[in-house]
Amino acid sequence: MNDIASSAVAQVADIARYMQNVGWAARTASRVVARADTKAKNDALSHAASALRGNTARLIEANRRDVEAARAAAHDDAFVDRLTLTERGIEAMARGLEEIVALPDPVGEISELRFRPSGIQVGMMRVPLGVVAIVYESRPNVTADAAGLCLKSGNATILRGGSEAIESNRAIAQCIREGLRKSGLPEQAVQLIDTTDRAAVGHLLTDDAHVDVIVPRGGKSLIERVAREARVPVLKHLDGVCHVFIDADADIDIAVRIADNAKTQRYSTCNTMETLLVHASIAPRVLPPIAAIYEAKAVEMRGDSRAREIAPSIKSATENDWYAEYLAAIVAIRIVDSLDSAIDHIARYGSQHTDAIVTENYANAMRFVREVDSSSVMVNASTRLADGYEYGLGAEIGISTNKLHARGPVGLEGLTSRKWIVLGNGQVRT
Hints:
Blueprint: H1 3-35, H2 38-54, H3 56-72, H4 77-83, H5 87-102, E1 110-115, E2 121-128, E3 131-136, H6 141-152, E4 156-160, H7 166-183, E5 190-192, H8 199-205, E6 213-217, H9 220-229, E7 242-246, H10 252-264, E8 273-279, H11 283-296, E9 300-303, H12 305-310, E10 315-316, H13 319-323, E11 330-336, H14 339-349, E12 354-358, H15 362-371, E13 376-379, E14 398-400, E15 408-410, E16 416-423
Parallel strand pairs: 3-4, 3-6, 4-5, 7-8, 7-12, 8-11, 9-10, 9-11, 12-13
Antiparallel strand pairs: 1-2, 2-16, 14-15
Helix pairs in contact: 1-8, 2-5, 2-7, 3-7, 5-6, 6-7, 10-11
């Protein structure tokens, strides 16, 4: 074996050993934070928020190095914008941790306690998941948000941010560890993978001895890789192909307002509407004002032949448009003949993320809610409201389209599980 090959083998071995040590330390710390009281966790978060504010200049300097490297690597303006930290952004991270402090602690909550004929009481207790690994890309604020949510829910966390934000993430993680240290909790409860070697992600995805769940935050390619390679349960969504269906019995003004907001309030988010479905009987009245708004906001419209007859500015849609998550100023529009047709379209082309109906017909609304199999189903509301903050969760670790454990925006409760507890007084089984 030549020197180059020997060096490569040694590097792989070093990464494997490093990741094993991180996993072991997280598992050990998880037992401590799982039994920590609410005050200790809140103190850690409050101290971390203070550390973020007190180290603003150092955080901005670390971020400057990341931004310069990103520009040198020819990343586009949108990428650099996601990467950039400002004083305002750092203050928002600190406030985010303080908002988590204000949330109720779900750990230890007992519910559904009831007596059985034997005299025992049976109930459920909410408990942490254990070790949560977060794999994410360029947004440095995820480091603080994820650490805060995992800590408040009694979990240890392993953070693997994108290589493009390594300097920023290191500086933020140091502030989180300062909060843990000052509160008497183990610093290993929040660990940042301190290498940009992609092999580290592979080790994390297969470390079922130390990691209980993985949450990927980023683009589709990242999430697909995590879902494909992980041996650990994954909380994820791949696409956000969200729909708004304007029913025959919709209020026109409400329909126009929702169709506008769901598409144009922000284009790059996973809960932005990508396909507008319109009932044929109301389309001549509702589609022209919607199309006029989209034209004024430079939204490209792609529709079927019936939509184009009503609004000639609409371009011809292809089959691929019904599957598309544009994340851009583009919308697909289809005219349908019934509620059944709308539900069938969503079942065929949707991604089980967020879908909405606009209607004044209660029976149609309830059918839509029951039959559309998505993680969030809405009546007379914009899909952009599918968000942990808007749902009263305070914050979210991400959106899950999984059907097991957590679904939709995942907050503190989604980062816990439940176990059976039994309270007796000497009962035995006969």
